[in-house]
Specification:
The N and C termini lie close together (9 Å). Helix content is 44%, strand content 15%. It is of the alpha/beta class. The strands form two sheets. The protein has a seven-stranded parallel sheet, with helices on both faces. The protein has a six-stranded parallel sheet with strand order 10-9-8-11-12-13, sandwiched between helices. The chain has two domains: 191 residues, Glycogen Phosphorylase B (Rossmann fold, 3-Layer(aba) Sandwich); 176 residues, Rossmann fold (3-Layer(aba) Sandwich).
Length: 381
């Protein structure tokens, strides 16, 4: 088969979970099934930055099909006019897979689209206006164009059926994975301290790693941490909130200031991928009380590192964590506080969750994810 992967999520300035999901699935797929012809397609510009970013993912023999047409102009045009995608990327592919919700018009061959979640429908107030507009304008026609629709969890499948029941027969679940070589227990204490120092972290800490935005439930987490810190006193571990700024993040920063927690709640800069594992492994526990996730890769990555996890019981998170995390009520500050208290005070619980988390993470390899995705491609052909 000639298979094309739309690589826009991979060549972004700062990759998000969608990009890492595509990277994990595509690079594993090429290793498992080298008999096919693969390529990444994307728009680039005169700087050549996109071509540089894609290089780290082409080592397995994936080709590059780049168009020098401006991406933003194409997106604007294709939203209003049926400008054929094949005009920029040709018509030789048997299958083209779009990993970020939207299938443009005029794609030759079969098409697959990954729809990660329905947060723009379920919690529209937590989604950036531009993103909502794009999905409201384009997702319905995108799923009509797609031959099959992939999603990350049974939860997300049911959510898509709720809002788009007409596409139920097209839906296939392909869970995300975790790179067990990249995310693994780190025994290099010097490396952990080096990363902590680079981020101005001193002493013990709880860690949240992800986008700083409302649906991650960070304001409730900060309130819960404030209660926990009052109970424990000056020896309380700090709360480190690491990740890029998302949509409507001002209220999260303001909450820290209004509670007088500036010295205890630390916001870091964007964390480079090579620093994620040492940062996780240095944490007392990983905290992720999100109210909505299509899959929830960060707690899975933390479990692979052997870090005990506190997460909410919302959306897809129970599918990922099973019984290998402390589960809290996302909407209850007292419940989140209780979870922090348990993980802080019970070393035996932390050790138990660490061991169970590593075993749980092994169920979600990128190889298993890629094989499920390949079954989707075979079904199409």
């Amino acid at each position: 088969m000639k298979i094309t992967f739309d690589a826009i999520p991979l060549v972004a300035d700062k990759m998000t979970g969608i990009g890492w999901c595509e990277a994990g699935q595509t690079t594993a797929l090429v290793k498992l099934h080298p008999e096919n012809d693969y390529e990444y397609s994307f728009f680039t510009d005169a700087s050549g930055a996109a071509k540089e970013r894609i290089k780290q993912f082409t080592v397995g023999g994936i080709g590059v099909n780049a168009s020098r047409f401006p991406k933003k102009i194409y997106r604007g045009m294709s939203a209003m006019l049926p400008v054929p995608y094949s005009q920029f990327f040709g018509s030789r592919s048997d299958i083209t897979h779009f990993f970020n919700y939207i299938v443009p018009p005029g794609v030759k061959g079969k098409t697959v689209v990954t729809v990660h979640d329905m947060v723009y429908k379920a919690f529209p107030e937590t989604v950036r206006g531009r993103t909502k507009l794009m999905l409201n304008m384009g997702l319905k026609s995108s799923m009509q164009r797609a031959d099959l629709v992939v999603t990350d969890s049974e939860f997300s499948k049911n959510e898509i059926i709720k809002y788009f029941p007409e596409h139920e027969e097209k839906l296939r679940v392909v869970p995300c994975g975790v790179d067990m070589e990249r995310f693994a227990p780190c025994t290099d204490k010097e490396r952990i301290e080096q990363v902590k120092k680079s981020l101005d972290i001193d002493g013990e800490y709880f860690l949240y790693l992800g986008t700083i935005e409302p649906r991650k439930n960070l304001e409730r987490l900060i309130k819960a941490y404030g209660h926990f810190s009052d109970e424990v006193g000056e020896n309380a571990p700090k709360l480190v909130l690491a990740g890029g700024k998302g949509w409507l993040y001002d209220g999260i920063f303001s909450r820290v200031q209004s509670m007088g927690l500036e010295d205890k709640v630390l916001f870091t800069k964007y964390v480079p991928s090579e620093d994620m594992t040492p940062l996780m492994c240095g944490a007392l526990a990983f905290v992720f009380p999100s109210i909505y996730e299509g899959f929830g890769m960060p707690p899975l990555e933390a479990m692979a590192c052997g870090v005990p996890v506190l997460c909410s019981g919302e959306a897809s998170l129970p599918e990922v964590t099973g019984d290998c995390a402390v589960i809290c009520d996302a909407y209850s500050i007292n419940s989140i506080t209780s979870g922090l208290r348990r993980l802080y005070s019970d070393a035996g619980l932390r050790a138990e969750l660490s061991a169970k988390g590593i075993e749980r993470a092994k169920l979600f390899s990128w190889e298993k994810s890629a094989e499920k995705l390949y079954d989707v491609y075979k079904e199409l052909m």
